[in-house]
């Protein structure tokens, strides 16, 4: 049995980038574990009726409930919080002014996941989990954290560090980064712009974190698993709005109010280890 471990920074990151992969892996009989590093305590809340949660101590437990519902929609039954509940907190971010890109705040609070002094402990905590789980495939982010969020960057750092510790020669564990294929996203955006009913603006592809299609080493075609991914996106109601009238592709929006396509495949870039770890799900 193939064992897959996904290392994500906040609740909802797993569904946006890997929801289809997770659903397809479960359907293929893989052993799937999701590791979430924080509960997204500083997340912005979209629905007016839930806006009172923003900035309060109630947001983290609420997002934990949303994550549980999302995992259930994807069929994932093994979920871990790095270091235990409440050990690491959302670091927050600042906008860079360059499309949907983020950077680290000037001041990080105590316990913030991105604090430099804590990286060795975080690698140790994740290493212990990976030693227990013995994964064949680990998925996280690229060195830039996808769009620059400091917690995504840290998740990349500790995923790479922990995989190197359990597989120092890179012979057994395949480490992948999530990646959105530029041309597929661009085509999806173009289709969204043709929908008169869409209530939100559609950004140019240059504003989104994508990579050239040629750099994608594995594409996981979602097929029917996209229905599960949409259900999981809806579960993260504080963070995500789903826009779906039955057209292809459906869309989602974050707190920035920009419509993005839920594409028909998810892309991944092999960073380390044996090629082909996700190959069985690429068809």
TrEMBL record:
Gene3D superfamilies cross-referenced by the UniProt entry = LmbE-like
Q: Which InterPro entries match?
A: GlcNAc_PI_deacetylase-related, LmbE-like_dom_sf, Mycothiol_biosynthesis_MshB
- Which region is the signal sequence? none
Answer yes or no on keyword Transmembrane. no
Enzyme category, top tier: hydrolase
Keywords on record: Hydrolase, Metal-binding, Zinc
The EC number of this protein is: 3.5.1.103
The protein's superkingdom reads Bacteria
Q: What's the name of the protein?
A: N-acetyl-1-D-myo-inositol-2-amino-2-deoxy-alpha-D-glucopyranoside deacetylase
Q: Can you name the source organism?
A: Actinomycetospora atypica
User: Which gene is transcribed and translated to give this protein?
Assistant: mshB
């Amino acid at each position: 049995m193939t064992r897959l471990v996904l290392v994500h920074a906040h609740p909802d990151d797993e569904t946006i980038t890997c929801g289809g992969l997770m659903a397809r892996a479960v359907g293929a009989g893989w052993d799937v574990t999701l590791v979430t590093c924080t509960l997204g305590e500083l997340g912005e809340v979209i629905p007016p009726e839930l806006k009172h949660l923003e900035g309060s101590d109630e947001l983290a437990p609420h997002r934990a409930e949303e994550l549980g519902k999302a995992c259930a929609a994807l069929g994932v039954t093994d979920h871990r919080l790095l270091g235990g509940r409440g050990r690491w907190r959302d670091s927050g971010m600042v906008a860079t002014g360059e499309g949907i890109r983020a950077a680290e705040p000037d001041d990080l609070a105590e316990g913030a996941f991105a604090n430099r002094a804590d990286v060795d402990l975080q690698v140790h905590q994740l290493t212990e989990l990976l030693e227990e789980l013995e994964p064949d495939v680990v998925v996280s982010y690229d060195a830039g954290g996808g769009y620059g969020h400091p917690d995504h960057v840290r998740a990349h750092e500790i995923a790479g560090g922990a995989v190197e510790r359990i597989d120092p020669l890179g012979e057994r564990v395949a480490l992948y980064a999530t990646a959105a294929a530029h041309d597929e996203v661009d085509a999806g955006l173009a289709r969204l712009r043709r929908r008169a009913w869409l209530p939100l603006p559609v950004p140019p592809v240059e504003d989104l974190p994508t990579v050239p299609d040629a750099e994608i080493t594995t594409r996981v075609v979602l097929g029917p698993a996209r229905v599960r991914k949409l259900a999981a996106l809806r579960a993260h109601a504080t963070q995500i709005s789903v826009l779906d009238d039955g057209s292809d592709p459906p869309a989602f929006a974050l707190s920035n109010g920009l419509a993005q396509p839920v594409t028909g495949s998810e892309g991944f870039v092999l960073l380390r280890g044996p090629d082909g770890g996700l190959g069985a799900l690429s068809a």
